[in-house]
Amino acid sequence: MPGTHLSAFERGKIHILAKQGVKFMDIAKELGRSASTIGRELKRNSTPRGYDPARAQRQYEERRQACRPKPRLAHTPLLDYVKAKICDEEWTPETISIRLPLDFPDDPNMRVSHETLYRELYTRHNLHYLIQCLPQARPRRRKRGQGKTRRGPSIPNRVGIEKRPAHIEQRIEPGHWEADTIFGKNQDSFLVTLVERSARILRAVEVFSKHADVVARAINELLLELPTSWVKTITFDNGTEFADHKTIADTLNVDTYFATPYCSWQRGTNENTNGLIRRYMPKGTCFRNLHPNRLKTIVKQLNNRPRKCLKAKKTNEVFQKQRQEHLLALRT
């Protein structure tokens, strides 16, 4: 049987023929094997008493078992880490993958790719329960929609994103924010969310009306406590709740811009963060019934979440580093 491994039966036959003094080349012809295969088998598994078929088969099985790759999550500390981060902190497999080298820099066993994690979650029955903690709890992703028909915004004195300074795209300078709202059940309550483009720091507050003056007041309260150097521009969605952007600009002394309608990727940082919030508050959640500290807890948890775009650093880690650099610059 060329192309296959020697069987226990063949090893028994080799033992009998070798004991009778048959040369290994003739044994190869008898079994239909190459002479080199039989020669290696005899050399590898011979003892002072001669060829031992039982020992040869046992060593073969041990070698085969050793050469098989072990499941990556067979390392118990790694499996425990993965379970804790997905269940307790609702991290994604990608978040876990990029954070492991920072949390365990000297332990090569604490490494796993996000693709391996997804495969393990969906193929190992004892890990299926973790799928419900993922942002997309389904085996396949839905196809992207074809978009909506474009229509012009009805916001007075609107300044388009095309007029925003080009250097803001580089995300080097702190102080450039993106703003949006998240609707609660029956649109009887809303969340105003603000995300800073460089550090990805999140600030959010609940409002019970999306009237422009209410939203403007909420944004001012969220950002007024920050130093002026941390609030330079705000890029809004085209919702009419941001129609009072001039009041925000005057109060905070910032420049305001609006993304192109139906081009959410122009505010990708904010859109992505809103998606993370939806993991805690899925569509249909009534924000009026939330505990007062629930939103604060969610914001705190997201600001302590490692981000791939930040090279696995946490948002607060980057924010605090920027803050220290700013204070140092003021002293010099």
Strand-helix topology:
Layout lengths: L7 H12 L4 H8 L3 H11 E2 L2 E2 L1 H15 L8 H12 L5 H11 L10 H10 L52 E8 L6 E7 L5 E6 L4 H13 L8 E4 L8 H8 L2 E4 L9 H13 L13 H10 L11 H17 L1
Parallel strand pairs: 3-6, 6-7
Antiparallel strand pairs: 1-2, 3-4, 4-5
Question: What report would you give on this structure?
Answer:
This protein is α/β, with parallel strands linked by helices and 332 residues long. It contains twelve helices and seven strands. It has helices at 8-19, 24-31, 35-45, 53-67, 76-87, 93-103, 114-123, 212-224, 245-252, 268-280, 294-303, 315-331, and strands at residues 46-47, 50-51, 176-183, 190-196, 202-207, 233-236, 255-258. The strands form two sheets. It has a five-stranded mixed β-sheet with strand order 5-4-3-6-7, sandwiched between helices. Strand 4 (190-196) and strand 5 form a beta hairpin. It is elongated.
Short description:
The protein has 332 residues and is an alpha/beta fold. Helix content is 42%, strand content 10%.
Q: What does the overall shape look like?
A: elongated
- Low-pLDDT segments, ≥5 res: 144-150
Instruction: Please trace the helix and strand order, writing H or E for each element.
Output: HHHEEHHHHEEEHEHEHHH
The main β sheet shows up as:
5 strands, mixed
Using only C-alpha atoms, the radius of gyration works out to 31 Å
Chain-averaged pLDDT: 87
The number of helical elements comes to 12
- First-last Cα distance: 80 Å
Strand content: 5-15%
